[in-house]
Amino acid sequence: MSPRAFSHEPINFSRMPPAIRALIVVNTVVFLLSMIVGERSFFDLFGLVPLHVVRDRWVWQPVTYLFIHGGLMHLLFNLFALWMFGMPVESQWGEREFLKFFLICGLGAAAASVALAPHSMVPVIGASGPVYGLLVAFAMLYPDAVVYLYFLIPVKAAHMAILFGLIEFFAGTTGATPGVARFAHLGGMVTGYVYIRWWWIFKVKALGLWRQWFGESLKIESPRKPRRRAATAAAAAESADPQAAMEEVDRILDKILVSGLDSLTEEERAVMRRYSDKTKH
C-alpha cells in the first residue's frame, strides 16, 4: 500500500496497513489470554487502576490497559473504529507516526483518568481513548468527509468529532454512564487535537526556517565528488521507498526542534535539501 493511498474495500486483513494489522492481532490475543487467565485478576494487574499507578507505581498500566477489553462487543467495536478511522490516517502518516500518535493518545487518556480519580480502584480498560484520538485526526485530515453515524445518519467528520466530544463531556460531568470512562475518551480526543494542532505546527515552522536559512544557499553549493555520489545513492533509495524518506524527514525535523540546526550531520542536511527542492517544485 502506498503512503497516501487506502481502500475501504470489504475488510481484507492482508491489505490493512501494518500498524493497524498489528494492533488488531495484539488486542485479539490479549483478549483471548484474559479469558483464559480470568478477567478479574487480569484487569487488576494490567488494566489502569489509578490508585495502583499513583501509590504503588505500577507504571506499566498506562500502556497495558490499551490492549485489554471487557467483552467481545467492546473489543469488536474498538477494532472496527480503529479500522474505519485508522486506515486513512495511517495511509497519510505512515506506520511509525501512526503508532506514536496511538500511544500518545492512550497516555493522554490514562493521564485524564488518573488525574480526575487518583484514589479509584476501578480498572479502566480498552483502546477507546486512542480510538477517539483517531476520530479527531480523521476529522482534521478529512473534515468534509461524510460518515454515517450509527450506519444511518450522514454527518461530516468535523461535526461528528465535535458532537462526540460534547457527548463525552456532558455524560462524564453528569455521571449518566458510571461504567464508561468518559473522561478517558475525552482525554484521548484532547491529546490528539493538541498533538496535531501544536506539535506539527512546530515541525512545519522548523521546515520553513530551514528553507529560509539554507534552501537557496545550499542549493547552489558545489559539494565534493564523493559526497555527491553518496547524495545520489541516497536520493535513489528515497525514490524507491517514499514512505521511508518521509519518516526520515520527520525524524530530522524532530531533531531540529530538540537540538537545533547545528546538530545535523552532512547526510541529514543533504536529505533536507532534497526534500526542500522537491516541495518547491
| CATH fold-level assignment of the largest domain | Rhomboid-like fold
Overall 3D geometry? globular
CATH superfamily of the largest domain, by name, is Rhomboid-like
**CA-CA gap between termini:** 25 Å
Order of helices and strands: HHHHHHHEEHHHHH
Number of self-contained structural domains: 2
Query: In angstroms, what is the radius of gyration?
Result: 22 Å
Q: Could you give the count of β-strands? A: 2
The major beta sheet can be summarized as: 2 strands, antiparallel
Regions with pLDDT < 50 over 5+ consecutive residues?
A: 1-5, 216-233
Strand order of the largest sheet: 1-2
**How does CATH name the architecture of the largest domain?**
Up-down Bundle
Structural class: mainly alpha
Overall helicity: over 70%
CATH class of the largest domain: Mainly Alpha
Question: Beta-sheet strand percentage?
Answer: under 5%
Average pLDDT metric: 80
Provide a count of the helices: 12
Describe, in plain words, how this protein is organized in 3D.
It is a single chain. With 281 residues, the protein is mostly helical. The radius of gyration is 22 Å and the shape is globular. The chain folds into two domains: 13-196, Rhomboid-like (Rhomboid-like fold, Up-down Bundle), CATH 1.20.1540.10; 221-280, no CATH class. It has helices spanning 18-37, 39-46, 50-55, 61-64, 72-93, 95-116, 128-141, 157-174, 182-219, 225-240, 242-259, 266-280, and strands at 146-149, 153-156. A hairpin with a 3-residue loop joins strand 1 (146-149) and strand 2. The protein has a two-stranded antiparallel ribbon with strand order 1-2. Helix 7 (128-141) crosses helix 9 (182-219). The chain starts with 17 loop residues before the first helix and ends with a helix. Residues 1-5 and 216-233 have low confidence and may be disordered.
